[in-house]
Specification:
Order of helices and strands: EHEHHHHHHHHHH
Largest sheet: 2 strands, parallel
Radius of gyration: 32 Å
Strand content: under 5%
Structural class: mainly alpha
Distance between the termini: 52 Å
Strand order of the largest sheet: 1-2
Number of helices: 11
Protein backbone atom coordinates (compact mmCIF):
# COMPACT_ATOMS: atom_id res chain seq x y z
CA UNK A 1 0.00 0.00 0.00
CA UNK A 2 1.33 3.45 -0.97
CA UNK A 3 0.70 6.53 1.06
CA UNK A 4 1.01 9.89 -0.79
CA UNK A 5 1.93 12.88 1.24
CA UNK A 6 1.74 16.35 -0.35
CA UNK A 7 3.84 19.04 1.31
CA UNK A 8 2.99 22.55 0.25
CA UNK A 9 6.22 24.63 -0.04
CA UNK A 10 4.36 27.88 0.40
CA UNK A 11 3.31 26.99 3.94
CA UNK A 12 6.25 27.54 6.26
CA UNK A 13 4.76 25.68 9.23
CA UNK A 14 1.88 23.29 9.82
CA UNK A 15 1.62 21.50 6.48
CA UNK A 16 5.29 20.47 6.46
CA UNK A 17 5.11 19.19 10.04
CA UNK A 18 2.00 17.11 9.32
CA UNK A 19 3.58 15.65 6.19
CA UNK A 20 6.76 14.70 8.07
CA UNK A 21 4.74 12.98 10.82
CA UNK A 22 2.73 11.02 8.24
CA UNK A 23 5.93 9.84 6.51
CA UNK A 24 7.44 8.68 9.80
CA UNK A 25 4.25 6.87 10.80
CA UNK A 26 3.98 5.10 7.45
CA UNK A 27 7.60 3.98 7.55
CA UNK A 28 7.07 2.64 11.07
CA UNK A 29 4.27 0.40 9.76
CA UNK A 30 6.41 -0.89 6.89
CA UNK A 31 4.44 0.81 4.14
CA UNK A 32 5.95 2.39 1.04
CA UNK A 33 5.78 6.14 1.00
CA UNK A 34 5.57 8.42 -2.02
CA UNK A 35 6.26 12.06 -1.28
CA UNK A 36 4.99 14.57 -3.80
CA UNK A 37 6.19 18.15 -3.38
CA UNK A 38 3.92 20.83 -4.72
CA UNK A 39 5.64 23.27 -7.07
CA UNK A 40 6.30 26.71 -5.72
CA UNK A 41 4.25 29.40 -7.37
CA UNK A 42 5.91 31.06 -10.35
CA UNK A 43 7.55 34.41 -9.82
CA UNK A 44 5.43 37.39 -10.59
CA UNK A 45 5.79 38.54 -14.20
CA UNK A 46 6.75 42.02 -13.12
CA UNK A 47 9.46 40.71 -10.82
CA UNK A 48 10.99 38.53 -13.59
CA UNK A 49 10.98 41.43 -16.05
CA UNK A 50 12.60 43.66 -13.46
CA UNK A 51 15.36 41.11 -12.88
CA UNK A 52 16.04 40.81 -16.61
CA UNK A 53 16.03 44.58 -17.00
CA UNK A 54 18.47 44.90 -14.12
CA UNK A 55 20.76 42.33 -15.76
CA UNK A 56 20.66 44.22 -19.04
CA UNK A 57 21.45 47.49 -17.31
CA UNK A 58 24.40 45.95 -15.49
CA UNK A 59 25.75 44.46 -18.73
CA UNK A 60 25.32 47.79 -20.51
CA UNK A 61 27.08 49.64 -17.71
CA UNK A 62 29.96 47.13 -17.74
CA UNK A 63 30.37 47.61 -21.50
CA UNK A 64 29.95 51.41 -21.66
CA UNK A 65 31.33 52.84 -18.44
CA UNK A 66 34.99 51.70 -18.76
CA UNK A 67 35.44 53.24 -22.25
CA UNK A 68 33.75 56.44 -21.08
CA UNK A 69 36.03 56.55 -18.05
CA UNK A 70 39.08 56.13 -20.29
CA UNK A 71 37.88 58.92 -22.58
CA UNK A 72 37.24 61.18 -19.60
CA UNK A 73 40.75 60.43 -18.33
CA UNK A 74 42.23 61.39 -21.71
CA UNK A 75 40.32 64.66 -21.81
CA UNK A 76 41.28 65.40 -18.20
CA UNK A 77 44.98 64.87 -18.92
CA UNK A 78 44.64 66.97 -22.06
CA UNK A 79 43.07 69.79 -20.04
CA UNK A 80 45.80 69.66 -17.38
CA UNK A 81 48.51 69.76 -20.05
CA UNK A 82 47.03 72.81 -21.79
CA UNK A 83 45.55 74.83 -18.92
CA UNK A 84 48.67 77.05 -18.68
CA UNK A 85 48.69 77.89 -22.38
CA UNK A 86 51.06 76.81 -25.11
CA UNK A 87 50.77 75.73 -28.70
CA UNK A 88 48.28 72.91 -28.07
CA UNK A 89 44.66 74.14 -27.86
CA UNK A 90 42.48 73.26 -24.89
CA UNK A 91 39.62 70.75 -25.13
CA UNK A 92 37.11 73.60 -24.93
CA UNK A 93 38.66 75.49 -27.83
CA UNK A 94 38.90 72.31 -29.88
CA UNK A 95 35.24 71.56 -29.18
CA UNK A 96 34.20 75.00 -30.40
CA UNK A 97 36.19 74.50 -33.61
CA UNK A 98 34.62 71.07 -34.08
CA UNK A 99 31.13 72.52 -33.77
CA UNK A 100 31.98 75.07 -36.46
CA UNK A 101 33.52 72.44 -38.77
CA UNK A 102 30.72 69.90 -38.47
CA UNK A 103 28.00 72.50 -38.85
CA UNK A 104 28.77 72.37 -42.60
CA UNK A 105 31.10 69.43 -43.34
CA UNK A 106 30.25 69.28 -47.07
CA UNK A 107 30.79 72.84 -48.24
CA UNK A 108 32.68 73.61 -51.44
CA UNK A 109 34.57 76.90 -51.84
CA UNK A 110 37.03 75.77 -54.49
CA UNK A 111 38.92 72.71 -55.72
CA UNK A 112 41.23 72.71 -52.71
CA UNK A 113 38.86 74.30 -50.18
CA UNK A 114 36.24 71.73 -49.22
CA UNK A 115 34.62 70.52 -46.02
CA UNK A 116 36.05 67.70 -43.98
CA UNK A 117 33.25 65.41 -45.14
CA UNK A 118 34.37 65.61 -48.76
CA UNK A 119 37.98 65.05 -47.73
CA UNK A 120 37.12 61.91 -45.76
CA UNK A 121 35.03 60.55 -48.64
CA UNK A 122 37.87 61.20 -51.09
CA UNK A 123 40.30 59.31 -48.86
CA UNK A 124 37.85 56.43 -48.47
CA UNK A 125 37.41 56.28 -52.24
CA UNK A 126 41.16 55.94 -52.79
CA UNK A 127 41.36 53.29 -50.07
CA UNK A 128 38.44 51.36 -51.58
CA UNK A 129 40.00 51.32 -55.07
CA UNK A 130 43.49 50.35 -53.94
CA UNK A 131 42.19 47.85 -51.40
CA UNK A 132 39.79 46.30 -53.91
CA UNK A 133 42.52 45.77 -56.49
CA UNK A 134 44.77 44.29 -53.79
CA UNK A 135 42.01 41.86 -52.79
CA UNK A 136 41.44 40.79 -56.40
CA UNK A 137 45.14 40.02 -56.78
CA UNK A 138 46.20 39.02 -53.26
CA UNK A 139 43.49 36.53 -52.30
CA UNK A 140 43.84 34.31 -55.41
CA UNK A 141 47.62 34.57 -55.12
CA UNK A 142 47.38 33.39 -51.51
CA UNK A 143 45.31 30.37 -52.54
CA UNK A 144 47.85 29.46 -55.21
CA UNK A 145 50.82 29.83 -52.87
CA UNK A 146 49.15 27.73 -50.20
CA UNK A 147 47.98 25.07 -52.64
CA UNK A 148 51.19 24.53 -54.60
CA UNK A 149 54.40 24.17 -52.60
CA UNK A 150 56.72 24.79 -55.57
CA UNK A 151 55.06 28.11 -56.33
CA UNK A 152 55.30 29.08 -52.67
CA UNK A 153 59.03 28.32 -52.63
CA UNK A 154 59.47 30.47 -55.73
CA UNK A 155 57.61 33.48 -54.36
CA UNK A 156 58.67 33.42 -50.71
CA UNK A 157 62.04 35.17 -51.32
CA UNK A 158 60.35 37.93 -53.34
CA UNK A 159 57.65 38.48 -50.71
CA UNK A 160 60.21 38.45 -47.91
CA UNK A 161 62.24 41.06 -49.79
CA UNK A 162 59.41 43.47 -50.67
CA UNK A 163 57.08 43.17 -47.68
CA UNK A 164 59.28 45.08 -45.15
CA UNK A 165 59.62 48.09 -47.49
CA UNK A 166 57.75 51.16 -46.26
CA UNK A 167 54.64 51.84 -48.37
CA UNK A 168 55.66 55.47 -48.84
CA UNK A 169 58.84 54.30 -50.54
CA UNK A 170 56.61 53.08 -53.38
CA UNK A 171 54.96 56.48 -53.82
CA UNK A 172 57.68 57.98 -56.09
CA UNK A 173 57.47 54.87 -58.29
CA UNK A 174 53.74 55.46 -58.63
CA UNK A 175 54.26 59.13 -59.49
CA UNK A 176 56.85 58.16 -62.09
CA UNK A 177 54.66 55.53 -63.72
CA UNK A 178 51.24 57.19 -63.56
CA UNK A 179 52.29 60.86 -63.71
CA UNK A 180 49.32 61.79 -61.48
CA UNK A 181 48.78 62.02 -57.74
CA UNK A 182 45.54 60.03 -57.44
CA UNK A 183 46.75 56.85 -59.19
CA UNK A 184 50.04 57.10 -57.29
CA UNK A 185 48.19 57.18 -53.95
CA UNK A 186 46.01 54.25 -55.07
CA UNK A 187 49.15 52.35 -56.07
CA UNK A 188 50.59 52.92 -52.60
CA UNK A 189 47.41 51.56 -50.99
CA UNK A 190 47.58 48.53 -53.28
CA UNK A 191 51.16 47.74 -52.30
CA UNK A 192 50.60 48.06 -48.55
CA UNK A 193 47.33 46.07 -48.62
CA UNK A 194 48.33 43.07 -50.67
CA UNK A 195 50.86 41.43 -48.34
CA UNK A 196 48.56 40.61 -45.37
CA UNK A 197 45.97 39.12 -47.70
CA UNK A 198 48.49 36.94 -49.51
CA UNK A 199 50.17 35.66 -46.35
CA UNK A 200 47.02 35.03 -44.30
CA UNK A 201 45.21 33.32 -47.17
CA UNK A 202 48.22 31.09 -47.89
CA UNK A 203 48.49 30.26 -44.20
CA UNK A 204 44.83 29.28 -44.11
CA UNK A 205 45.25 26.96 -47.09
CA UNK A 206 48.20 25.19 -45.46
CA UNK A 207 46.12 24.69 -42.28
CA UNK A 208 43.43 22.70 -44.10
CA UNK A 209 43.57 19.10 -42.79
CA UNK A 210 45.25 16.76 -45.25
CA UNK A 211 42.47 14.21 -44.72
CA UNK A 212 40.03 16.55 -46.47
CA UNK A 213 42.28 16.75 -49.50
CA UNK A 214 42.83 12.98 -49.48
CA UNK A 215 39.07 12.40 -49.56
CA UNK A 216 38.77 14.86 -52.43
CA UNK A 217 41.48 12.96 -54.29
CA UNK A 218 39.72 9.64 -53.69
CA UNK A 219 36.45 11.10 -54.96
CA UNK A 220 38.31 12.48 -57.98
CA UNK A 221 37.04 16.00 -57.40
CA UNK A 222 38.11 18.72 -59.79
CA UNK A 223 40.35 21.54 -58.60
CA UNK A 224 37.37 23.90 -58.77
CA UNK A 225 35.34 21.58 -56.54
CA UNK A 226 38.22 21.33 -54.08
CA UNK A 227 38.40 25.12 -53.99
CA UNK A 228 34.67 25.82 -53.57
CA UNK A 229 33.74 22.92 -51.29
CA UNK A 230 36.85 22.45 -49.13
CA UNK A 231 39.40 25.25 -49.34
CA UNK A 232 37.21 28.35 -49.43
CA UNK A 233 35.02 27.53 -46.37
CA UNK A 234 38.07 26.48 -44.34
CA UNK A 235 40.24 29.44 -45.36
CA UNK A 236 37.56 32.14 -45.03
CA UNK A 237 38.38 33.09 -41.38
CA UNK A 238 42.08 33.47 -42.24
CA UNK A 239 41.21 35.45 -45.34
CA UNK A 240 39.01 37.85 -43.37
CA UNK A 241 41.82 38.34 -40.84
CA UNK A 242 44.12 39.37 -43.68
CA UNK A 243 41.46 41.73 -45.02
CA UNK A 244 41.06 43.34 -41.59
CA UNK A 245 44.81 43.88 -41.26
CA UNK A 246 45.00 45.25 -44.78
CA UNK A 247 42.22 47.80 -44.34
CA UNK A 248 43.84 49.13 -41.18
CA UNK A 249 47.19 49.51 -42.93
CA UNK A 250 45.56 51.12 -45.97
CA UNK A 251 43.75 53.73 -43.88
CA UNK A 252 46.99 54.43 -42.03
CA UNK A 253 49.02 54.91 -45.20
CA UNK A 254 46.55 57.04 -47.17
CA UNK A 255 46.86 59.93 -44.71
CA UNK A 256 50.63 60.08 -45.16
CA UNK A 257 50.38 59.62 -48.93
CA UNK A 258 47.90 62.48 -49.28
CA UNK A 259 50.17 64.77 -47.29
CA UNK A 260 52.81 64.23 -49.98
CA UNK A 261 50.59 64.21 -53.08
CA UNK A 262 48.13 67.00 -52.21
CA UNK A 263 44.63 67.33 -53.65
CA UNK A 264 41.44 66.51 -51.79
CA UNK A 265 41.74 64.08 -48.89
CA UNK A 266 41.98 63.98 -45.14
CA UNK A 267 45.78 63.83 -45.25
CA UNK A 268 45.99 66.92 -47.42
CA UNK A 269 43.42 68.62 -45.17
CA UNK A 270 45.63 68.01 -42.13
CA UNK A 271 48.68 69.42 -43.90
CA UNK A 272 46.74 72.44 -45.16
CA UNK A 273 45.47 73.20 -41.65
CA UNK A 274 49.05 72.99 -40.39
CA UNK A 275 50.09 75.55 -43.00
CA UNK A 276 47.28 77.77 -41.73
CA UNK A 277 48.44 77.18 -38.10
CA UNK A 278 45.02 75.82 -37.10
CA UNK A 279 46.21 73.22 -34.62
CA UNK A 280 42.72 72.62 -33.24
CA UNK A 281 41.64 71.48 -36.72
CA UNK A 282 44.54 69.04 -36.80
CA UNK A 283 43.39 67.54 -33.49
CA UNK A 284 39.87 67.25 -34.88
CA UNK A 285 41.26 65.46 -37.94
CA UNK A 286 43.16 63.05 -35.69
CA UNK A 287 39.92 62.09 -33.93
CA UNK A 288 38.08 61.77 -37.26
CA UNK A 289 40.80 59.53 -38.71
CA UNK A 290 40.74 57.37 -35.60
CA UNK A 291 36.95 57.05 -35.56
CA UNK A 292 36.75 56.11 -39.24
CA UNK A 293 39.53 53.54 -38.81
CA UNK A 294 37.78 52.10 -35.74
CA UNK A 295 34.50 51.77 -37.63
CA UNK A 296 36.20 49.98 -40.53
CA UNK A 297 38.03 47.57 -38.23
CA UNK A 298 35.00 46.79 -36.07
CA UNK A 299 32.84 46.15 -39.13
CA UNK A 300 35.36 43.66 -40.48
CA UNK A 301 35.73 42.03 -37.06
CA UNK A 302 31.97 41.48 -36.92
CA UNK A 303 32.12 39.98 -40.39
CA UNK A 304 35.01 37.71 -39.37
CA UNK A 305 33.13 36.49 -36.29
CA UNK A 306 30.11 35.76 -38.48
CA UNK A 307 32.16 33.37 -40.62
CA UNK A 308 34.30 31.87 -37.85
CA UNK A 309 33.10 28.32 -37.35
CA UNK A 310 35.66 27.21 -34.80
CA UNK A 311 34.06 25.82 -31.68
CA UNK A 312 30.61 25.54 -33.25
Amino acid sequence: MTLAVVADRTDAGTAEVRGLRAVLAARGKGRAVKVVAADAPAAAPGRGYGARLGGWMRALAAAVLPPLAGLALLIGLWHLATMNGGGIPTPGKTWEAAVAIFSDPFYRAGPNDQGIGWNVLSSLQRVAIGFGIAALVGIPAGFLLGRFAVLSQMMNPIISLLRPVSPLAWLPIGLLVFQRADPAATWTIFICSIWPMILNTAQGVTRVPQDYLNVARVLNLSEWKVFTKILFPAVLPYMLTGIRLSIGTAWLVIVAAEMLTGGVGVGFWVWDEWNNLKVEHIIIAIFVIGIVGLILEQALMLLARRFNYEGR
